[in-house]
Design goal:
This protein is mainly alpha-helical. It is built from 14 helices and two strands; from the N terminus they run αααααββααααααααα. The protein has a two-stranded antiparallel sheet. The protein is globular, with a radius of gyration of 29 Å. The N and C termini lie far apart (62 Å). Keywords: Ion transport, Membrane, Transmembrane, Transmembrane helix, Transport. It comes from Brassica napus (Rape). Belongs to the ZIP transporter (TC 2.A.5) family.
């Protein structure tokens, strides 16, 4: 009996020791990892520096090319913002931005805020990545709404100033007469127009089928497409394009700085190589979507150029900042992890909102899309293709 008791006691003690040792080793290794700089067998500072220079050049050229194509092409027939080619290319770019928000930025924020180097409280007690993304989406909605209201009121004041005195426009119907009258129509066949709303009403009266059926919409696209898209007949459309372009640039720039810094602080060529290809692809199509929105907003050439340059330079600047602090940067420190996780999550919320609301919904729920079945099919294919390709890049980067 005594021998059996001693055997059991010895066995229990041995098992306890075997359980304690791995835990102690894991805790010590985790402490060393969290308190020291990143240890990577592929680390090569000189090779990483050269690759960062290549990344700056490649990403700068890709971003500049992507944002320039719609701006230069708006004066070319095949790339005008009211053309089918532009709509389908923009759908592809919207899919890229949507996948960037969901698959890359939100996943990166989750990984950072769930890192074991962070204290258990509060980071393990609440799903902060999704919360920060939601907050960012709601704040973007508020900014979107307030900006649209501001620009619409500004347009109304300018329209009222330009049309304080009424004008009489002759109405010519089929056969030279028109028995029906609209608001403001005079007995002599003219219409007294005061303000931009009345002008739009007269335009709809002159083209009764322009917005009520797909047949009328198709005719307008052929005969009066330029006037409808660029003429400013709908008061809110110009304001929406201005706000969308500015908010989209804000969201893209914020996460471009983050991904640039992330690449810059890395000293591993094995990490940087796939990032160069992924970010170049990503920047080109993000730039295309932004350039399209800037083109639709009809900014002056100077303003459009400033916005385009600001976008093209943000990621290279981020890479430069990351490279400068790489020697003293510890990616496993609490401050770095929290900053990266919060900024990635906020960027994800902004990008997801902009992709779904201001890019995808604005085009896919439009009258033009609903009246063109072929355009619907191609646009959906391009949307899914863009999202799929950008998502698949997460395998490497």
């Amino acid at each position: 009996i005594l021998t059996f008791v001693l055997f059991c006691t010895k066995k229990t003690a041995t098992e306890s020791i075997l359980q304690i040792v791995p835990d102690t080793m894991a805790a010590s290794s985790s402490t060393i990892l969290c308190n020291a700089s990143e240890s990577d067998p592929c680390r090569d500072d000189s090779a990483a520096f050269l690759l960062k220079l290549v990344a700056i050049a490649s990403i700068l050229l890709s971003g500049a090319a992507g944002v320039s194509v719609p701006l230069i092409g708006r004066n070319r027939r095949f790339l005008q913002t009211d053309g089918s080619l532009f709509v389908t290319a923009k759908a592809f770019a919207a899919g890229v931005i949507l996948a960037t928000g969901f698959v890359h930025m939100l996943a990166g924020g989750t990984e950072a805020l769930k890192n074991p180097c962070l204290p258990e409280f509060p980071w393990s007690k609440f799903p902060f990545p999704g919360f920060f993304a939601m907050v960012a989406a709601l704040i973007t909605l508020l900014v979107d709404f307030m900006g649209t209201q501001y620009y619409e009121r500004k347009q109304e004041r300018e329209a009222d100033d330009d049309q304080l005195q009424g004008i009489v426009v002759p109405l010519v119907g089929e056969g030279g007469c028109n028995d029906e009258k609209v608001f403001g129509e005079e007995d002599n066949g003219g219409i007294h127009i005061v303000g931009i709303h009345a002008h739009a009403a007269h335009h709809r009266h002159s083209h009764p089928h322009g917005h009520g059926s797909c047949d009328g919409h198709s005719k307008i696209d052929i005969g009066h497409g330029h006037g409808h898209v660029h003429g400013g007949l709908e008061l809110g459309s110009g304001a929406r394009h201005v706000v969308v372009s500015q908010v989209l640039e804000l969201g893209i720039v914020s996460h471009s700085i983050i991904i640039g810094i992330s690449l810059g602080v890395s000293q591993s060529p094995c990490t940087i190589r796939p990032l160069i290809a992924a970010l170049s692809f990503h920047q080109f199509f993000e730039g295309f979507a932004l350039g399209g929105c800037i083109s639709q907003a009809q900014f002056r050439n100077k303003s459009a150029t400033i916005m385009a340059c600001f976008f093209a330079l943000t990621t290279p600047i981020g890479i430069g900042i990351g490279t400068a602090v790489a020697s003293s940067f510890n990616s496993h420190s609490v401050g770095a992890l929290v900053t990266e996780g919060v900024l990635d999550s906020l960027s994800a919320g902004i990008l997801v909102y902009m992709a779904l609301v201001d890019l995808i919904a604005a085009d896919f729920l439009s009258k033009r899309m609903s009246c063109n079945f072929r355009l619907q099919i191609v646009s959906y294919l391009m949307l899914f293709l863009g999202a799929g390709l950008m998502s698949s890049l997460a395998i490497w980067a």
